[in-house]
């Protein structure tokens, strides 16, 4: 042995406890039943709870499969009873004994194993445990930070185990579905080329190629299109994607998507295939049978009815356009808005005419925080309509608005005016806010909706140029292509989003498969020839050699599992999530690295 | 439309060809049979080949599912016949017509569709194609660089499609197997903490946390152990791993592994479960039934018999130790080696006593290139043993060596002396080299072998310290733990490697699950407390709260698929591989990025 190491090595004497030989389990902790009484069994697992009732020690032994009660009593084995005194919560043990019927009145009908217990005659402590920072129970009061730091303890909770088992099931169902339908699973690179939305790319410096970088994929979009050019016809993958952005509750730096692409198809083919997958997930994971097909709604209708491109249709409270009623109102806020091409629209809230000044002020603050100039309200009293701007709005106009909105006596009408998209989005947010306040959103309802006919482009006021609403490979609708030079903002895309209960769970499109049209769209997006060549050169190059018509979709897998599991946060369905600032509290990453490592990568921190 | 954009937009006139409406396929190109004759069909796909026989044009139309012959003739449709004149290889088309029996004598028995053709009455060109840089055929003469640059064309070749479809099948079989056996699929993070082998980590700078980095996993080792601590009992995942090192033929910067971990198990449990998975893969992917269980061999025996820790046992040529015969030889090269604890060993090559001086010089150069001092040979002539060092080695010694090696008249014996591991490794390489030269390796033979009883540690002469042979979490064998202070180099690990035809395809171990033993092994490896805390603090911390005994394995998925597909390079079973210098020739990554991006990451290239 090299002497220079000797000083670093503390003396280590293998103890009986280090050299564990133990009896392996014959059953899991969720397996034994009344029919097993009289047999012997060995179980392994964690001490879930421990009660010392004077002469007898009871523990619940826990593993992934369930819990079984173990009884340590002198009459079963005095030595084992004595050694059980050291047992504490979360100790790992192997225990053997006879399976016995629990005394009458002590059965636990909540546990599948509740009829029996194990009369312990052998015990090995496989590992001790310090007192955990929070108790391992189905629901916990521990803060999320503590839960994430001690994720290995948090994941012992039955809720988290259920979520991850559900996630496991969802993976298998999705893959089996696509496999059965002739899709080929192909892995696309994680170390890839930086994409146009490069600002949100995670970059990876190359050691061998000084000054050059890979990027982690925000999506395998270009590769799946390449696979169609390569003739794979039907592709799928459940794949990690990465986005370095500011995180919201339902976003993660790395997230998982179900990625699908098909050749020689139109929108209906992709939509139908997706519906089949979703239906199978709900049936096999939740035992819920969905009605197919899901309804479809144009983006325009979704915005004008629900104020959102992902409407929650589980409740009503529809938006109605009142622009024509107030087009020539004395109230200039309304009439000027209409003149400028904006919209005046409102929602009727049945039975809320008694809303207080205070409540209405709160709502005004809410819409102002979203950028509204103000909130106009109308209360439908029995004798008259009370209008918050009645000095300016005529009684006829108020009546007209009420008629448009179907407002009846006792109702409250809230009205927003402004630019089309902004005013409607604020009404959409107000609609959701009110539904939550009024507890109008039914549980256990699964409202699916396809939103279609999105605009191809949106004009960015900030950058003074068009951006792709979906992505630059989305095909315009055939009947709109003629507007490509005259009125590009009017062009609708062959895109479709799938919405579930107000959450977007999938989105896709039919792609452009012609080089000329792709170049044209790039130019609309202000992506010059040189930039296009640099960024997507290989895709444009591939299009030269016979690209088939193709289209696809990507599902947000984390979100879908979150909805299946009935959770509010995707972090509860991800084994090792990061915080909203992209940190892993368990392993403390990101972290500092050695200077030597940076030298090898030819980079320096500034 | 914003005027400032106008100048950037070239005038675009949607042509008939841009606005493609086309008939969707009724069948794939591999589907039609004699029984379909008389019906009509629409096919879509790529023009695989085209023959113009004066009045009639024949094409083979290709998609992922097969090829179908299409006939364009004036009598079927004169316009369509005329428009078929533009068709060239790799054009994408939709074609409709009547399914007809091919004229007698023109059937193609090699194609499942060879009985029929389509008499084209409708044709739409969905996309034209430039002449591809190489022809799309089963085997190609194109260089690998060209194939990788135009991967979308290379992937159209039937060989590559077959490989990726086989890979697809392998994914499904593996997941179905582990799912059926109660394993939970869990995704571990890609953005994780740097590991001890940090020198080979790909690093990812954090935008939010200035000067901090994530690392891409070389393996999810710590996370899967954490999952055992969390009680998941059985975990699997098919997962991307990353290693920034110099690449050999069978390595990639990003590679795929089947990752497995189990609780409350010993070596036999992991080995048996793995054998079941391998057997199912071979049966379902190749229709080959394997005999279980696979044989096991100690590392020592593998080295001393085959000169390798991953022996190819498809052929014989075993190594034999002759040290005792030459221990007191006058030939100091031998006797000194034995005195210093080294080994003198050889291989007998039957019937090669007529090897020429030239051939033997070539072999001497070969072993010298591997670091041997020289190569001693003996030719077994009918009248005598010719020994290349017969001036120093007595006839008795030569006879003794021959006896040890079972050498008979007509055989050639090659002998290497030196330090145990080095001499045996050189003999192992010589054995493989000779087997290849002599064409001794049978095809279609699947020789599986478990190599077990690896040493826990190896001493790095360079760094003057021990390194883990597997990884620092591998458990020592119980009966060897007592040597942990006295003779650590003698400790054997609870590790196992699965070898197929001389290639390591999986490796794993029973892990240390006790904090004290883990700390001890870290200290043997020269990983100090502070370093251990920094690098694996969270794992050691987790071990405080009740870690179960556990172990696992990781399979090299790419290599397994390579062997299943009968390929020599893993690049032929990866859709988008990188070159040996970790470049993607198709998309030209890694590439330079904008200074703005680096600024946001707070890094600079030096």
What's this model, at a glance?
The structure is a homodimer of 606-residue chains. Chain A has 606 residues and is of the alpha+beta class.
Q: Keywords, please?
A:
homodimer, 606 residues, alpha+beta, OB fold (Dihydrolipoamide Acetyltransferase, E2P), BirA Bifunctional Protein, domain 2, Gyrase A, domain 2, 3 domains, eight-stranded mixed sheet, five-stranded mixed barrel, 17 helices, 23 strands, 29% helix, globular
Detail the topology: elements first, then pairings.
Two copies of one chain form a homodimer.
Chain A: H1 3-6, E1 40-53, E2 56-63, E3 66-72, H2 78-83, E4 92-101, E5 116-127, H3 144-149, H4 151-154, H5 158-180, E6 184-185, E7 203-205, E8 213-215, H6 221-229, E9 234-242, E10 254-263, H7 267-286, E11 296-298, H8 299-306, E12 319-321, H9 323-326, H10 332-339, E13 343-349, H11 357-369, E14 376-380, E15 385-387, H12 395-405, E16 412-418, H13 420-437, E17 448-452, E18 457-460, E19 465-468, E20 495-500, E21 503-510, H14 515-524, H15 529-543, E22 550-556, H16 557-565, H17 595-600, E23 603-605
Parallel strand pairs in A: 3-5, 6-9, 11-17
Antiparallel strand pairs in A: 1-2, 1-4, 2-3, 4-5, 7-8, 9-10, 10-22, 12-13, 13-16, 14-15, 14-16, 17-20, 18-19, 20-21, 21-22
Helix pairs in contact in A: 5-7, 5-16, 6-15, 8-13, 14-15
């Amino acid at each position: 042995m090299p002497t220079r190491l000797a000083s670093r090595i503390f003396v280590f004497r293998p103890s009986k406890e280090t050299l564990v030989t133990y009896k392996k389990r014959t059953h899991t902790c969720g397996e034994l039943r009344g029919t097993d009484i009289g047999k012997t069994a060995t179980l392994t697992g964690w001490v879930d709870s421990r009660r010392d009732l004077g002469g007898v020690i009871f523990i619940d032994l826990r593993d992934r499969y369930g819990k079984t009660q173990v009884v340590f009593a002198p009459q079963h084995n005095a030595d084992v009873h004595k050694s059980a005194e050291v047992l504490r919560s979360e100790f790992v043990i192997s225990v053997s004994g006879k399976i016995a019927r629990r005394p009458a009145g002590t059965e636990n009908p909540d546990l599948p194993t509740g009829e029996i217990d194990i009369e312990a005659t052998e015990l090995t402590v496989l590992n001790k445990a310090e007192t955990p920072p929070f108790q391992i129970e189905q629901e916990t009061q521990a803060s999320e930070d503590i839960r994430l730091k001690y994720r290995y303890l948090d994941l012992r909770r039955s809720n988290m185990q259920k979520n991850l088992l559900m996630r496991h099931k969802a993976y298998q169902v999705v893959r089996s579905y696509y496999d059965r339908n002739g899709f080929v699973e192909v892995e696309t690179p994680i170390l890839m080329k930086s994409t146009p939305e490069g600002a949100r790319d995670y970059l990876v410096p190359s050691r061998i190629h000084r000054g050059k970088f890979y990027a982690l994929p925000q999506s395998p979009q270009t590769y799946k299109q390449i696979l169609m050019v390569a003739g794979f016809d039907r592709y799928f993958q459940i794949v990690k994607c990465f986005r370095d952005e500011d995180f919201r509750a339902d976003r993660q730096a790395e997230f998982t998507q179900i990625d699908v692409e098909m050749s020689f198809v139109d929108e209906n083919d992709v939509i139908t295939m997706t519906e089949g997958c979703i239906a199978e997930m709900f049936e096999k994971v939740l035992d819920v049978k969905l009605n197919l097909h899901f309804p479809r709604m144009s983006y325009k209708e979704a915005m004008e009815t629900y104020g959102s491109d992902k409407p929650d249709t589980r409740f009503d409270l529809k938006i109605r356009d009142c622009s024509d009623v107030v087009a020539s109102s004395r109230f200039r806020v309304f009439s000027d808005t209409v003149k400028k091409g904006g919209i005046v629209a409102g929602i009727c809230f049945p039975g809320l005419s008694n809303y207080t000044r205070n409540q209405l002020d709160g709502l005004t603050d809410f819409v102002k925080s979203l950028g509204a100039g103000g909130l106009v309200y109308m209360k439908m009293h029995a004798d008259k309509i009370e209008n918050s701007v009645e000095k300016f709005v005529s009684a006829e106009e108020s009546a007209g608005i009420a008629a448009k909105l179907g407002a009846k006596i006792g109702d409250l009408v809230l009205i927003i005016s402004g630019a089309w998209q902004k005013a409607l989005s604020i009404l959409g947010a107000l609609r959701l806010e009110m539904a939550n306040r009024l507890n109008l959103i039914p549980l256990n309802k699964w409202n699916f909706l396809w939103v279609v006919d999105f605009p191809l482009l949106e004009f960015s006021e900030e950058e003074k140029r068009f951006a792709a609403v979906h992505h630059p490979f989305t095909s315009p609708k055939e009947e709109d292509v003629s507007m490509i030079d005259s009125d590009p903002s009017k062009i609708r895309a062959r895109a479709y989003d799938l919405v579930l209960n107000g959450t977007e769970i999938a989105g896709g499109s039919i792609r452009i498969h012609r080089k000329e049209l792709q170049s044209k769209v790039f130019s609309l997006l202000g992506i010059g020839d040189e930039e296009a060549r640099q960024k997507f050169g290989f895709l444009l190059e591939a299009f030269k050699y016979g690209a088939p018509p193709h289209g696809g979709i990507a599902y947000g897998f984390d979100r879908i599992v979150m909805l299946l599991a009935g959770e509010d946060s995707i972090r509860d369905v991800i084994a090792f999530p990061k915080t909203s600032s992209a940190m892993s509290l368990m392993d403390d990453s990101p972290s500092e690295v050695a200077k030597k490592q940076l030298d090898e990568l030819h980079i320096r921190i500034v």
